[in-house]
Design brief:
This is Adenylate cyclase. With 445 residues, the protein is an alpha/beta fold. It has 14 helices and 21 strands. The strands form four sheets. Strands 4, 5, 6, 7, 8, 9, 10, 11, 12, 13, 14 and 15 form a twelve-stranded mixed β-sheet that branches. 39% of the residues are buried.
Length: 445
Amino acid sequence: MNKLRILQQYLKTKYGSRFSNRKQLERFHKQQIKKQLLFTIENSPFYRQLYAPFLEEIEKGQLAALPIIDKEVMMEHFDTLNTVNISKEEAFRVAFEAEKTRNFSPTIRHITVGLSSGTSGNRGVFLVSEEEQTLWAGSVIGKVLPSSILHKHTIAFFLRANSNLYEATKNKRISFHFFDLLDSFQQHITRLNEVNPSILIAPPSMLRKIASWQQEGLISICPQKIISVAEVLEDMDSAFIRATFQQTVHQVYQCTEGFLATTCSQGTLHINEDLVHIEKEYLDQENGIFVPIITDFMRKTQPIIRYRLNDILIEKKTACSCGSLFLALERIDGRCDDIFIGRSELDNREISIFPDFIRRAIIFASNEIQQFKVIQHSLNNIEIKLEVPPEHLESCQSNVIQELHALWSTKKCAVPHIFFSHYDIQLHDKKLKRIERLVSHGEQI
C-alpha cells in the first residue's frame, strides 16, 4: 500500500477539495465525467459496445443521454464490464471462500474481491485495485477522522465481512480492529473493553446494543466519534445512542458501488460530490424523495457510470449550517423494495407509501415505543412488532393502529388489517430492516 499516496489523497480530501460555488463544482464534475468515460470506453468491452451509438453525446459531455444500468445488468455483463479481465465465476469463488473461512485477505492478481450484502435479494461481487484502495483509504480518513491524521486513533469496526479495503486504513497511528458480527456478544464485550476504541463504527442495531452494554456497565468505553453504517439509522436508535455516549451519531453511506456520503460537523449527511456525481430520479419531487443514479470518479477496475441504486434518499430542503456546497440529505429512507403498497379506494390502482411516512406514524404513536418493525405481508395485512414497557403496550398498539389508519386514509387507500406480534428481532449477520415489504406489485391478496 502506497502510504504517501494515501497521505496525498487525505490532504486533498480534507483541505484541497474546496469549491466556491456550485458552478465551479459542476465544471469539476464535467471534467471528471469526461475523463472517466474516455477511460472506460477504451478499457471496458461492455461499455465500449453500450456507448457506441453515443460517441457524439460523450464528446459533448452529455452524461444524461447515456443508458442507465443497475445491479442486474452489471452482474449479467460482469466479465466484459470490468477492466482487469476477471470472470464472475472466479470472483465469486474467491469471495465465497473468504466468507466461508472468514479470511478476507486473498486477492486475484492484487485485485480485492468482495460481496455485496444482497439485501435486495441477489448478491453482487465487486472488484477494487490497490490504487483504488489507496484513494478510498485517503478519502475515508479525510472525511471520517475526528482530528488530524497525526493523532493516534483506534478504530473498532463491526461488519458482516472484513475486507482488504478496510484494512487499507491501517498505519502507525491508526489501529484498525475488525469485529465480526458472527462472533458472540461476550467476545464483543471483552474485546471492546480491551480495545477501548476512539472511533466506533457499526450498523445502528449493533450500536444500540453496544449502548445498552455501556448503560448496564458491561463495557466502559469513551469513543470520540460514533459512526453508523450499513443500515438505515432510525431517529429512536440515534437518540438512544446519543443519550448514552453524549455525542452526535455520524453516518457513512458506503455501498458496493461507492463511498457516497458522510456527515458533516453538524451531523448532516452530505453526498461526497468530490468523489461521485449524483443524478436524482424523483419518486416524489414535492417531498424531495429520490433514487440516486451514480457515476463514480474513482472506480476504474469496475466502472460505475449512470448506475441506478435501489436506495431511497430524501434531500434536505434547507442549506446546512456547515456551509458545504455538497448535496445535503434529510435521511436515507430505505430501499425501493420496501415501499409499501396501498390500493386506491377511488380507482383500485396501486399507491406508493414511502418508508418515512410509516416510520413517522409509528414514532408519533407514542414516546414509549423503544423498538419496532413493520412488515407488509399483503395489501390487506400488516404486522407490527413493538418493544414497549408492558404497562404501555395496549395504549401503544391502539395509537399505532390509529396513526396507520390515518396515513392510509390520507392516501385515500383501503385501510389494511393490522396485527401485532412479539418483538423478537435478534442481531445477526443480516441487516436489520425496520420497514419491510414482502408483498409484490400486482398481488391481489
